[in-house]
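Long-time lurker, first post. I've been practising inverse folding by hand and with some scripts of my own, and I keep getting stuck on stretches where the C-alpha cells seem ambiguous. Below is the full C-alpha cell string for one chain I'm working on. Before anyone asks, I'm not after the true native sequence, just a reasonable design that respects the backbone. If someone could post their per-position residues I'd love to compare against what I wrote down in my notebook.
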C-alpha cells in the first residue's frame, strides 16, 4: 500500500484503548445498506444516529488518550496479528465492508469490545483462554458484526440520563487532556475508566446480539475458520458467566448476554456447514504464548504463567511445544536472564522450526547482548524471509541504527512508511531519531510532528513544527511548515469543537 503523506493526510491513529460511548446528536442521514438474506433486519439507522465519519472521529479522539492507559498493549506482533485477522473477517462481512482496527488489552478477563469508528479491543484473557484460532475469531467476528450493523451508533442515541452524564464527564476529561498538550497519563487513565463505565450503559438488544451472531457466523465460515469454534467459545462463555456471576469473570458474556436461543441458533447454523479439517496458524500459538507472558504482572500471575508454559513444553509436541518454549524464553528475557532465554529459544527452534516471532526474539537477544553485528545479520535475514512482518522491519531498522548506519536506516524507514505508515506511526519517530543523528534537525522535527499527528497529540505536533520553522533558513521550507502548522491547528480546533458538543 503506497501513499503520499501530508501532515494529516493519513487516517489519524491506528491503535487506541477505550470502551464504547454514548451520545445523542443529530447528524446528516446515511443511507442504509440492504440487509442480506438470512439476517434479521432492525431497520435503518435513524437521522439522529452518528454518521460513520463522525463516529470515527469520536473514536480517534478517545483513543489518543486511552492509548496512554498502562493496559494498552503496544506490540507490533500482537497488533498485526489481531488486525490481520479482523480485516480478513471483515472482508466477508454481509453488506458494506467495515474499516476495523484491532488492539490488545492487558486484562485476564475473557472479553472483547467494539468502540466507535470500528476500533475493537481484545483482552489478553480472551486469547490466552481460547483453545483454537477459530474460537478467538468467532468473538472478533461477533464484534465486527456490531460494527457492520452500526449497533454502536444506534446505541449511542438511545441512552438514559446516567449515560449522558458520563459522556459529558468523559468529554470534559478529554478536553482537559487536550488543554494540557495530550501528555497527561492521568487523563489517559481517566478517559479509559470513564469510557468503560459508559460501555456498561450501552447494552445491545436481543435482536442486535442475534444480528451480530449471524453476521459473525457468515464472516467466520467464509474466512475459512471452523464454525464449531463459535459453538465451543459461546458454550465456554456461558459457563464462565454463570460461574463468575457477580465477580466479573464472564465479562464478555455479561455485556453480550448469551441465551439458550442464541446458542441453539449458532449450533443449528454450524450443523449446516459441511465438516472439514481446519488447522490453526502457527502465528496463533506463538501470539497466544506471548500474551500469556504479557498478561502476567504480579508474582502470582507470573508464576502461574510459567507453570502452564513448563507443562505445555513437556506435554505437547510440534508447534504448540515450540510456542511454550518461546513463552518461557520471553519470560527469561523479561527478567534479563539472557542465557536462559537463549536456551529456551534454542529449544523452540529445535528440529529446524522457524517463525517470525522466534526470529524477532533472537534479534532482541543479540541486541541485549550488545552484539550489534549479530543483531543486524539476523534482522537482515529475517526481513528477507518474512518481508510483511512489521515487527521484523522495525527490528531491522533498529539494528541499522544500533550499528550507526543512520543513512541506511532512513532509506529503509521511508520505504516502510510508504507501506505501513498508517499502521505503524512509530516508524516516523524512528526516522526522526536517525535524521537528528545525521544532522537534519528540521526534518527530524517535522517527522516527529507526523508521529504526534498520527497518535492524536496535536499540541505536541504543533510544538515540533514551530521548532522546525525556527530552525529553518529556507523560505520555501518555512512556507511548507506554515501550511502544516495551520492543518494541525485546524484539526485540534475540530477535535475541541467535537468534544465541546459532547460535553454540552
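-- Answer (accepted) --
I ran through it position by position. Result:
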Amino acid at each position: 500500500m503506497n501513499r503520499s503523506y501530508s501532515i494529516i493526510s493519513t487516517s489519524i491513529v491506528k491503535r487506541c484503548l477505550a470502551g464504547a460511548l454514548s451520545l445523542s446528536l443529530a447528524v446528516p442521514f446515511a443511507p442504509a445498506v440492504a440487509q442480506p438474506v438470512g439476517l434479521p433486519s432492525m431497520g435503518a439507522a435513524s437521522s439522529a444516529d452518528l454518521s460513520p465519519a463522525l463516529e470515527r472521529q469520536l473514536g480517534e479522539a478517545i483513543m489518543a488518550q486511552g492509548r496512554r492507559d498502562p493496559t494498552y498493549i503496544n506490540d507490533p506482533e500482537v497488533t498485526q496479528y489481531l488486525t490481520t485477522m479482523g480485516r480478513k473477517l471483515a472482508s466477508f462481512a454481509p453488506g458494506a465492508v467495515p474499516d476495523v482496527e484491532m488492539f490488545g488489552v492487558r486484562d485476564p478477563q475473557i472479553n472483547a469490545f467494539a468502540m466507535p469508528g470500528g476500533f475493537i479491543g481484545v483482552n489478553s484473557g480472551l486469547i490466552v483462554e481460547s483453545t483454537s484460532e477459530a474460537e478467538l475469531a468467532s468473538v472478533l467476528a461477533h464484534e465486527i458484526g456490531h460494527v457492520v450493523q452500526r449497533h454502536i451508533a444506534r446505541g449511542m442515541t438511545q441512552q438514559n440520563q446516567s449515560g449522558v452524564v458520563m459522556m459529558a464527564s468523559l468529554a470534559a476529561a478529554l478536553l482537559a487532556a487536550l488543554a494540557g498538550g495530550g501528555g497527561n497519563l492521568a487523563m489517559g487513565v481517566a478517559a479509559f475508566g470513564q469510557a468503560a463505565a459508559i460501555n456498561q450503559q450501552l447494552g445491545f438488544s436481543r435482536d442486535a446480539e442475534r444480528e451480530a451472531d449471524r453476521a459473525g457466523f457468515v464472516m467466520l465460515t467464509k474466512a475459512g475458520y471452523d464454525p464449531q469454534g463459535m459453538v465451543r467459545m459461546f458454550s465456554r462463555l456461558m459457563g464462565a458467566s454463570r460461574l463468575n456471576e457477580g465477580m466479573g469473570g464472564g465479562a464478555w458474556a455479561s455485556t453480550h448476554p448469551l441465551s439458550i436461543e442464541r446458542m441453539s441458533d449458532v449450533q443449528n447454523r454450524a450443523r449446516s456447514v459441511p465438516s472439514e479439517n481446519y488447522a490453526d496458524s502457527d502465528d496463533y500459538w506463538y501470539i497466544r504464548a506471548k500474551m500469556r507472558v504479557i498478561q502476567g504482572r504480579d508474582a502470582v500471575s507470573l508464576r502461574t504463567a510459567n507453570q502452564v508454559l513448563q507443562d505445555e513444553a513437556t506435554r505437547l509436541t510440534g508447534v504448540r511445544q515450540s510456542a511454550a518454549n518461546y513463552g518461557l524464553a520471553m519470560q527469561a528475557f523479561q527478567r534479563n536472564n539472557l542465557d536462559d532465554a537463549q536456551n529456551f529459544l534454542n529449544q523452540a527452534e529445535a528440529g529446524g522450526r522457524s517463525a517470525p516471532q522466534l526470529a524477532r526474539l533472537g534479534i532482541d537477544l543479540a541486541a541485549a547482548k550488545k552484539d550489534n553485528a549479530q543483531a543486524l545479520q539476523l534482522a537482515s535475514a529475517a526481513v528477507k524471509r518474512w518481508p510483511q512482518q512489521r515487527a521484523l522491519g522495525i527490528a531491522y531498522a533498529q539494528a541499522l541504527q544500533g550499528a550507526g548506519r543512520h543513512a541506511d536506516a532512513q532509506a529503509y524507514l521511508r520505504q516502510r512508511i510508504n507501506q505501513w505508515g498508517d499502521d505503524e506511526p512509530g516508524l516516523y519517530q524512528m526516522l526522526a531519531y536517525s535524521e537528528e543523528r545525521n544532522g537534519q534537525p528540521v526534518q527530524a522535527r517535522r517527522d516527529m510532528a507526523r508521529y504526534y499527528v498520527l497518535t492524536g497529540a496535536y499540541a505536541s505536533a504543533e510544538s515540533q513544527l514551530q521548532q522546525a520553522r525556527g530552525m529553518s533558513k529556507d523560505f520555501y521550507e518555512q512556507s511548507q511548515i506554515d501550511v502544516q502548522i495551520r492543518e494541525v491547528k485546524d484539526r485540534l480546533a475540530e477535535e475541541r469543537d467535537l468534544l465541546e458538543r459532547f460535553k454540552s
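A couple of notes from the structure itself: The chain has a mean pLDDT of 82. The chain is about 65% helix and 5% strand. Happy to go over any region you disagree with.
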